[in-house]
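S.,

Sequence below, as promised.
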Amino acid sequence: MSNISKFMDDHFRHFNARETVAAAQAYKDQLASGNKMMVSLAGAMSTGEIGRSLAEMIRQDKVHAISCTAANLEEDIFNLMAHDEYKIVPNWRALSTEDEVELLNQGFNRVTDTCIPETVMRNIEGRLLTLWQDAADNDRPRFPYEFMYELLDDPTLEPLFQIPKENSWMLAAKEKGLPIFVPGIEDSTLGNIFAARVTQGVVSSHRAMRSGTEQMSKLIGWYQEQTNSGAEIGFFQVGGGIAGDFAICVVPTMIQDLKLDIPLWSYFCQISDAVTSYGGYSGAVPNEKITWCKLSGEAPKFMIQSDASIVAPLMFAYILGW
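The prediction came back faster than expected:
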């Protein structure tokens, strides 16, 4: 057994630590049984460089589909293209209003301790604009992730990479042909830019980008395809929000609205710092999902109330046997 896995087995004995190891082992058991895994990403996990471990999970067939916020979709590529130009602010809690204004004037957008340069956003916009225009003008709408896969196919891009391509989960997903479901594309930098260009008439139609309901239909088809082949599907949720809520609802949609006989999610784990008693769904304990026709009473269920930027890489390391 490798160092990280052994350390976790030896020292993660109780409380959230014990739950972390139990959830990671149950994830491994799901894969050993021939089941598949959906991973959802909320927050700013791509800016937190989750690709350093998630990409290897994808390459080793331990992730079979992803549901993520549009910010995570784009920020992995921002990091790929401009990592050396990012600014790290270790004392971010002590920043004054004047400090924040100075970062703005320098062309940075801050995410906790990490500042993303505006220049990379405009660089990627320039490359995507021609793809958006083609989709609109030729009635060839694409899903958000398909634009990104097409962007990554551009041979002029790789010489500009500023991190090892092995650390990009988007590149790993493209190479594996993973479907990526991106609800709420409009709540992102590039989604805002897309809307602005349509408003200006630079992109001729909103129809260039496939809608959220079309993505749900695609997810229905993907879920049917996997379960028809004999696999069940687990759900590993990093954070809360729309990335998790959207994807997990495909099961009740199929059972209650389409009247299909399909299996519920076979495993559930969420890493979250949301508080259950506040009434927010992101903090709901897994058992609540039973009444919504998402999980059975028998499915393994885990809620790790901790920092996903710490726990997710540890769990991925354990699953990978590092």
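The chain has a mean pLDDT of 96.

Coffee later?
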